[in-house]
Amino acid sequence: MRVFVKDESLHSIEEAIKVYLSSLNFTPKIVEVGVKDSFGYVSAEDLTSPIDYPPFSRSNVDGYALKSSCTPGELKVIDRIGIGEFKEIHVNECVAVEVDTGAMIPMGADAVIKVEDVKVINGDLIKIDRKMTFGQNIGWIGSDIPKNSIILRKGEVISHEKIGLLASLGVSSVKVYEKLKIYLIVTGDELVEPGNSLPQGKIYESNLHYLYSKLKEHYKIVGLSLLRDDIESIKSEIKRAVSVADILILTGGTSAGEKDFVHRAIRELGSIIVHGIKIKPGKPTILGIVNNKPVIGLPGNIVSSMVVFDTVISEILKNLYPSRKEIIGLGKIKARLALGVTADKYRDTLIPVYLFRSIDNFYYALPVKFDSYMVGTFSLTEGYIMLKPNEEIEEGKEVEVNVKKYDDSISIIGEEDKKVLNLDTKNVLLGSLPASKAIEYKFGDIAVTSSLYTRSIENYDKVFCRQILVNGEGDEIGYDDWVGMSKIVKNPVVKLKSPSTIYSLLGKARVYAPEGYIVGNKVAEECLYMVGISERGKRYLNTMKV
């Protein structure tokens, strides 16, 4: 029986995928795997950090912890803290504490001077000839990852960098979707296994080798079969395949030839949802179902298999999971800088960036504050740029970005609030400065700016106001200067990057945070202005209740 696929009845690639996916009732199995074995799996849950990282304010150099206001000058060294040690020391006057790289910073100290920049007068007295800046050589508690912040998204493909982050936070296992089990069947009387002699009229089999090599990295291959053009053999092998696999992929026998038995076998055992796609090569592709399992039939031509795999099969497989809109493998791309950057004076310098598309379809790279201990920042960002020693690149200039992966989900850039913190969006909640740049250059989807940071905000889509509260006594804890609340405390002993980081300091100092984060007395009111930048951002904002 010859079955001709008529051109006028063909689906487009997008239509075929949409129709097929809507016909499937596939639920991937959730399993728990050790973090060290989780590479390439798709996360089945949103996972939050169980701790602040770093879990304490740490020194980034070997040197002396002190108050920056006491420099320059001569300071008495009152104690020493080694890496891994805890000492209840409070620097409340012009003294110094010797610290190792990675050692805990004593409370009250707000800078560390490198040991090579100090002149030792005698055993316990040092001389500092220059002014230290607040926060110099310190990694504040939670400055990389605040406790309870989302570190792994449901539907995210787990990368090597993310494994390093999970381990750094003490996570030993993670819930993932079990890798899809795939069965491969190749049909054709003309096919000969590579390595054997080639009789006249025959060709070497290549589809099985191609598909196996494409699939084995991300999926589990549970069967490989090379069959002759025999309807009963093909039906028997299809039954075997769907009994052990999640998905069956066949090649050959999908067109109108007398020995094209695959489409007949699928119809007799199940149903064909799509037979024929508007693509060349690859027109007679079959998308079917047998025993509620996806069964995909490819033409026997090896080039057709390659084309259909990249345009159709890869999209179907990806969408069988609740996956995020991640683009992996972009390599190096050109992007415009949203903020200026400066390298270390003497060394090549890596700077992590988030990537966004602008409304005129340019990529923008948003560089973030970074130090070498920040495994979280490095693994959560999407790429990085490399600068030569002492190199400076101005805002708006084009740079080359080494892309790890790009999340094309709806993005929210700006101030943190619990109304947006746990939305299933691409959240870059680092303050009003990045938000103002997103508005200026029209990149990303939604910007959230603070009235404390920018007094005059026009053309916003939504606004909500919140009380800023204070809790506790003693040293004042403030915020990074990108954040609106940084305007409240002028000389804090610690600068946090977000209100999510304050919890470890409750009861130990005077902390400020929005209502909903802490209880306390009102000290200010802040309004957050939400601006839809892209059309999809505006549509998303219309669905939000704030």
From TrEMBL:
GO cellular component: cytoplasm
Protein name per UniProt: Molybdopterin molybdenumtransferase / Periplasmic molybdate-binding domain
EC number in record: 2.10.1.1
InterPro entries reported for this sequence: MoaB/Mog_dom, MoCF_biosynth_CS, MoeA-like, MoeA_C_domain_IV, MoeA_linker/N
Annotated keywords: Transferase
One GO term of the biological process aspect: Mo-molybdopterin cofactor biosynthetic process
PROSITE patterns, A to Z: MOCF_BIOSYNTHESIS_2
Keyword check for Transmembrane helix: no
Membrane-spanning residues: none
The protein's annotated pathway: Cofactor biosynthesis; molybdopterin biosynthesis
Class of enzymatic activity (EC top level): transferase
Domain MoaB/Mog: 183-319
GO molecular function annotation: molybdopterin molybdotransferase activity
CDD domains: MoeA
